[in-house]
Amino acid sequence: MTSATRQLILVRHAKAADPGAQVDHDRPLTDRGHADAKALGEWFKEHRLRPDLVLCSTSVRTRETWADVVASSGLGALVANDQRIYNASVDRLLGVIEDEGAPSHSIALVGHAPGIPGLAATLTEGVEEDPDGPSLDDGWPTCTAAVLEISVPWKKLAPGTGRLVSMHTARASD
Predict the structure, then answer these.
(1) Are 141 and 147 in contact (CB under 8 A)?
(2) Model pTM greater than 0.85?
(3) Phi and psi for 107 in degrees, rounded to 5?
(4) Does residue 16 carry a pLDDT above 90?
(5) Which of 76, 122, 127, 129 is the most exposed place for a label (fewest CB within 10 A)?
(6) SS3 call for 121
(7) Nearest CA to 67 among 24, 52, 59?
């Protein structure tokens, strides 16, 4: 990554409890979700991913996911819990990044499907993937992170302004 590019790390929350009788926003992570999120934190540490700013949905499952990532990676970035990210559309997510991104060089956005996978697809639209590299076509299960290199300032995010650099679905070892 050059000084002219930015980094956007898109994270889908880890496995949450079934809705049952509770409100969707309040669903916590399962034991597997906590373990997977900690494994994602190890992946962050191994790949030296250190966002300047974390934009996180206000849902319990996203906040718990990020807390577990921090616990196992040692990250200490500023976290902004933002209600607008909860079950947000691609357009709303773009707006959150545009509103909150400056002056950050690297942002982690922790949210939900289908918004997070949709944002990755939108930002990389029309950008040729490395045939030997990661692919968004591999799906986006819970506790998946994608690292995008962004070629424009946050305020100018648009289709085709991102390139997928890496992607990982974290699973705790058995």
Answers:
(1) no
(2) yes
(3) -125, 135
(4) yes
(5) 76
(6) helix
(7) 59
